[in-house]
Amino acid sequence: MGTLYLVRHGQASFGAEDYDRLSELGHRQSVRLGEYFAERGIHFDGLIAGTLRRHKETLAGILQGMNRGGEHLSWDGLDEYDSDAVIATVHPDKLQKPTSPEMVRHHFRLLRDGLAQWMAGATQPAGMPTYRDFVAGVAGALDHVRANHYGKNVLVVTSGGPISTAVGHVLGTPAQTTIDLNMRIRNTAITEFAFTPKRHMLVSFNAIPHLDAPAYRDWVTYT
């Protein structure tokens, strides 16, 4: 039996021109997760990450917290969908930078609607794969882990979309459930699978044990 730890990236830069970089808190979340792994004596035989900047920065922070280095495998099938392109399929006008809770809620209502349409094959966001191909990219990463890392611990750093898709793929959930899972994944949360050469089995979802202490209460974020 092997163990796969899927980790969502640290807090990125929601509302900024360049979302694809960690905030200062995102860096601290990542280092803290690495410290947690080191405190628990959890070591990784395989390191895999999506190709986005926030994935690489999160992995670097985790390794810093663990006081270790290591080469990782880049896997573009673990890259996040383009939320702006998804929203544009249901709201062609450019959204203003969210400056209030209601504007944030409006953004995510549109994202939910756009995701549902894309997953159903009713729309095709510009510059993105079909949803079938998106799932195939995530499933390919799971297949790689099973084929190459049986009996080992593997760390994968990616985004909420691929993580919820991995859970949905393994459990066979409907599209709406996958969207619901996606919207609730916290930054640097751990989703754990046990795996054999034949299949993955979900052990835990969206856990943040490294942020459980009162000192880290304000470190829990979703965007």
Q: Could you list some keywords that capture this structure?
A:
223 residues, alpha/beta, Rossmann fold, 6-stranded mixed β-sheet, 7 helices, globular, Mito_Ser/Thr_phosphatase, His_PPase_superfam, hydrolase, Histidine phosphatase family protein
In words, what does this structure look like?
α1 packs across α2, α4 runs antiparallel to α7 (175-184) and α5 crosses α6 (160-171). This protein has 7 helices and 6 strands, in the order βαβαβαααβααββ. It starts with a strand and ends in a 16-residue tail after the last strand. It is an alpha/beta fold. It has a 6-stranded mixed sheet. The relative contact order is 0.20. It is globular, with a radius of gyration of 17 Å. The protein folds into 2 domains: 2-81 and 130-219, Rossmann fold (3-Layer(aba) Sandwich), CATH 3.40.50.1240; 82-127, no CATH class. Keywords: Hydrolase.
Q: What would you say the CATH architecture of the largest domain is?
A: 3-Layer(aba) Sandwich
Q: CATH topology of the largest domain, anyone? A: Rossmann fold
Q: Strand share of the residues? A: 5-15%
Fraction of residues in H or I helices:
40-55%
CATH superfamily of the largest domain, called what?
Phosphoglycerate mutase-like
CATH class of the largest domain: Alpha Beta
The coarse overall form would be globular
Give the N-to-C terminal Cα separation.
33 Å
Number of domains: 2
User: Largest sheet, described in full?
Assistant: 6 strands, mixed
